[in-house]
Amino acid sequence: MDLILPMLVDGLAASALIFFIAVGLTLVFSVLRVLNVAHGSFYAIGAYVAVVIGGFVMSAGASPWLSFPILFLSAALVAALLGPAIERTFIRFTYGKPEAVQILVTFALFLIFEDLQKLVFGVQAYYQDAAVSVLGISDIGGIIYLNYQLLLIALAVLTVLALRLLMRNTRLGKMIVAVVADPEVSATLGIDTRRVYAAAFTIGVFLAALGGALASPNSGVAPGLGAEAIVLGFAVAAIGGLGQIEGAAIAAIIVGIARVVAIYEMPALEPVAPYLVMLAVLLVRPYGLFGAATQRRI
Amino acid sequence: MLQLLIIGLLVAAFATIPVAFPWLAFVFTLVLAKGFAALGVAILLRAGLISIGHALFYAIGAYTVGFLSQGAGVDLLIPQLLAAAAISGVAGLLVGLFMVRYRGIFFAMLNLAVSMVGYTLLSKLYNVTGGTDGLAIATPSVLGMTLSREAFEHLLLYGGLGLAVVVCIVAHRYLKSPMGEALSAVETNEIRLEYLGIAVPRVLLFAYVGSAILAGIGGAIHALAVGHITPDLAYWTTSGQLVLVAVLGGIGGVVGPFIGATFMESVRSFAAIYAPDVWNIIIGAGLLIVIFFLPRGLYGLIERIGGRRDGQ
């Protein structure tokens, strides 16, 4: 019984990172109806940019506290540079096309980004853990935790609340909700759907890059990161029901705890845990925990 | 007719080029391996089902050969291939029974999940699969003959090419049969198909098992050609490549996936010499060009030439 509390905190810390991978994916899907394989690339690029900028600033002798704004700024930088550009040049041509086409276009982008990352950042691993070390550790019930992990949990909760606020209480959010409900009627009401799509995609890129940036102080960054991130993101988004932001949060908690339980009980099974949960959920609820069934046309 | 002629010329070119450039023999054998698997993926794509998990069956084919060679000491080519086809078929049946209930993105994701479970088991069950070190595969004997490695590689290439021709003819007839035509009807309108009294799950299960067997044969050839296998064969990027090859080549005809595989493996081996860092960029850009400008794939080019002349 002594294990319950540490398992819970460990599980939630793992969930926070998983949540950041999945939430952007599910947001982009809910608005654009595109399953974005290149999401993993944005995650990896966010991690690379954060580590490189962070390393540069730290080596100039700046205060390690500066690394926190750097994490957010790198994510914003990646989103501003890549989000609108990619949506306008490639993604928009796939709207309304079969899923196979959408998945393949984003898979092609993923392949291109894989090589671009290697060309720009090389194949060596990077580490920049100023953000973890400056926060130190704390002791909960006799177990030592990194404060950074606890911060991640708080940030994930804040992100859920911020997205909720964005969707319900801002002009952009209301336009997004309208476009999700009915793109054509929204357009006739004077909403510029092209800008809404570009904005939603850019928010998705920001969330992916932020996820990568936030994960980097703890685990570093190396080639192959994007490929691992995207499959995990798929699993979590599918468990929660594609397009459901709160669903992604709850799915992330389930998967995070499942992974930690696996680590404590059967370490070899830890990497399979997310997929086993996903299989179990989809076999019982084919549209995920919170997904709604779509009508079939005759 | 012209279309058949072009295909015949392509097969002849495929058979003669490795004679002139012996180092290409290995590349072309891998083309056949990927081609078989991509043909399986293409059959499912006709029903609008995109599987990002067929690398699992590719790996099952490869590991069947691996277990027979290293574990059981069965170094005989024909039994190895038959076992690979049979076991991947059984695996396809078991997985397919669940898969045929799902469509669209959920079909894609469930295949992904199953293949990632397979990938993890292959890398973690060190005692059985050798973990990430993989398994080594000895050169098997063929019909009681013990061949040198070089002779075996030639046999694999030309035997594989013969098998590919036979498989293409069978697959073509299947796609023109009522079961095969029903596949594209599933994509167009599934409910109408049900109203016509056709059992859609059965149609899809048949296609799924067939595609798993094709992927298994491809994996077995891959294992025999390379002589060493690792769990990466089951990773999702391998599955993605198979879909990519199928779409690049075109799913309109059974030859398409093999053309796509030729394109991809050629780019890969030339890029390995001249531009090792950018081959993914070339493949990705090629895929984008095909999707946006050649919706029927490279095979569509042959159809266009053949179709225009036939119409005159």
Automatic annotation (TrEMBL), chain A:
<dbReference type="GO" id="GO:0022857">
    <property type="term" value="F:transmembrane transporter activity"/>
</dbReference>
<comment type="similarity">
    <text>Belongs to the binding-protein-dependent transport system permease family. LivHM subfamily.</text>
</comment>
<dbReference type="InterPro" id="IPR001851">
    <property type="entry name" value="ABC_transp_permease"/>
</dbReference>
<feature type="transmembrane region" description="Helical">
    <location>
        <begin position="147"/>
        <end position="166"/>
    </location>
</feature>
<protein>
    <submittedName>
        <fullName>Branched-chain amino acid ABC transporter permease</fullName>
    </submittedName>
</protein>
<feature type="transmembrane region" description="Helical">
    <location>
        <begin position="272"/>
        <end position="293"/>
    </location>
</feature>
<keyword id="KW-1133">Transmembrane helix</keyword>
<keyword id="KW-0812">Transmembrane</keyword>
<keyword id="KW-0813">Transport</keyword>
<feature type="transmembrane region" description="Helical">
    <location>
        <begin position="42"/>
        <end position="62"/>
    </location>
</feature>
<keyword id="KW-0472">Membrane</keyword>
<keyword id="KW-1003">Cell membrane</keyword>
<feature type="transmembrane region" description="Helical">
    <location>
        <begin position="196"/>
        <end position="215"/>
    </location>
</feature>
<dbReference type="InterPro" id="IPR052157">
    <property type="entry name" value="BCAA_transport_permease"/>
</dbReference>
<feature type="transmembrane region" description="Helical">
    <location>
        <begin position="103"/>
        <end position="127"/>
    </location>
</feature>
<dbReference type="GO" id="GO:0005886">
    <property type="term" value="C:plasma membrane"/>
</dbReference>
<feature type="transmembrane region" description="Helical">
    <location>
        <begin position="247"/>
        <end position="266"/>
    </location>
</feature>
<keyword id="KW-0029">Amino-acid transport</keyword>
<feature type="transmembrane region" description="Helical">
    <location>
        <begin position="12"/>
        <end position="35"/>
    </location>
</feature>
<dbReference type="GO" id="GO:0006865">
    <property type="term" value="P:amino acid transport"/>
</dbReference>
<feature type="transmembrane region" description="Helical">
    <location>
        <begin position="68"/>
        <end position="91"/>
    </location>
</feature>
<feature type="transmembrane region" description="Helical">
    <location>
        <begin position="221"/>
        <end position="240"/>
    </location>
</feature>
<dbReference type="Pfam" id="PF02653">
    <property type="entry name" value="BPD_transp_2"/>
</dbReference>
